[in-house]
Design goal:
0% strand
Length: 125
């Protein structure tokens, strides 16, 4: 009973953090307002870049948040299952640990690819 309440509370907190981060990213990424003495063409250009900067910030946040979250969950599950396997068969500890480490490397590689894509979104686009 307590476990179900705790899980529900954790899920609500994670959803609240995700919602706040989605709305906070464009606010943090916004540039300072344009200089009032600047020509109208420069002001229009700045306004366009402000919109694209905010959208790029949202894209970068989403591009790294979901793979990182999935990788962390996958690593936690893999580590827990390998600990259970070692507890059940201590004589197979070496094989289980080697397989777990190889799996963790592949999971982390996917997260690093997401990080590279996020860096490309931020600096190239």
């Amino acid at each position: 009973m307590k476990t179900r309440k705790f899980r529900r509370m954790v899920m609500v907190m994670l959803l609240a953090i995700l919602a706040v981060s989605l709305f906070a990213v464009p606010v943090m990424a916004a540039n300072a307002p344009a200089d009032p003495a600047a020509p109208a063409a420069a002001a229009a250009e700045t306004e366009e870049s402000d919109n694209s900067t905010g959208l790029l910030a949202i894209a970068a946040g989403l591009a790294i948040s979901f793979p990182a979250m999935g990788g962390a969950i996958g690593m936690g599950i893999a580590t827990g299952k390998s600990a259970e396997g070692i507890a059940r068969q201590p004589e197979a500890e070496g094989k289980i640990r080697t397989t777990m480490m190889l799996g963790l490397v592949f999971i982390e590689t996917c997260v690093i690819y997401a990080l590279i894509i996020t860096i490309l979104i931020i600096f190239v686009m």
